[in-house]
Structure to design on (229 residues):
């Protein structure tokens, strides 16, 4: 390789490193019966931002997550776009992508028959995937988010936070927020467990009034039937 080519290559690598180092990635997950997910890339290098402005789509991240999860675990994740799925801010060179994730492979529950509360099981290992934001900008969330959720910071009873800061790489700030009514919250590896509020149908099924009401209806039907005869 001749000297001018080497100089150009080194310059490109330095510029790309600077683009990665100055950027910041924030991920917010709001969990209820589904996951509302927001990825925000800010302070991007101008050339990377312009490339993304032209080629990045709202489906890019949820598709990458679903494809990766199927390839690595042979399980399906359902996803859907939010009402405002993709936003750009030219001033801060920011891209915000938001969408929903759901499906029994990542969100499931069983009923605690003592408390009549649903006990949710939320899997978060789907966050480990590789994303090509543009042809020249990619992020390896497999490596950057390898720390299990059970070892993340827990500033409140219903929040999990994680920061990953490396030299020559974008800072990653990841936050998981459960519904405020969640109780008995715990994490094992990359799975979060918590109790939700009792659901109306479960309360009715477990209520003695339902049984008494059913018996009353049966008795009325019997009496009306006898009168009709």
């Amino acid at each position: 390789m001749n000297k001018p080519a080497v100089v150009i290559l080194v310059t490109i690598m330095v510029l790309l490193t600077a683009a990665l180092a100055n950027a910041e990635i924030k991920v917010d997950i709001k969990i209820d019966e589904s996951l509302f997910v927001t990825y925000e890339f800010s302070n991007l290098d101008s050339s990377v931002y312009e490339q993304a402005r032209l080629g990045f789509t709202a489906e890019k991240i949820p598709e990458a997550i679903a494809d990766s999860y199927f390839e690595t675990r042979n399980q399906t994740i359902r996803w859907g776009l939010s009402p405002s799925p993709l936003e750009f801010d030219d001033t801060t060179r920011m891209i915000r992508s938001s969408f929903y994730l759901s499906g029994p492979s990542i969100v499931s529950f069983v009923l605690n028959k003592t408390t009549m509360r649903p006990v949710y099981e939320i899997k978060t290992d789907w966050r480990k995937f590789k994303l090509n934001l543009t042809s020249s900008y990619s992020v390896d969330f497999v490596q950057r988010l390898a720390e299990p959720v059970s070892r993340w910071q827990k500033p409140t009873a219903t929040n999990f936070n994680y920061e990953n800061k490396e030299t020559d790489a974008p800072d990653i700030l990841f936050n998981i927020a459960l519904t405020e009514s969640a109780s008995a919250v715990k994490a094992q590896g990359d799975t979060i467990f918590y109790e939700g509020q009792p659901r109306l149908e479960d309360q009715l099924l477990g209520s003695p009034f339902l049984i008494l009401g059913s018996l009353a209806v049966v008795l009325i039907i019997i009496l009306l039937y006898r009168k009709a005869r």
User: Anything to note?
Assistant: Residues 200-229 form one domain. The mean pLDDT is 86.
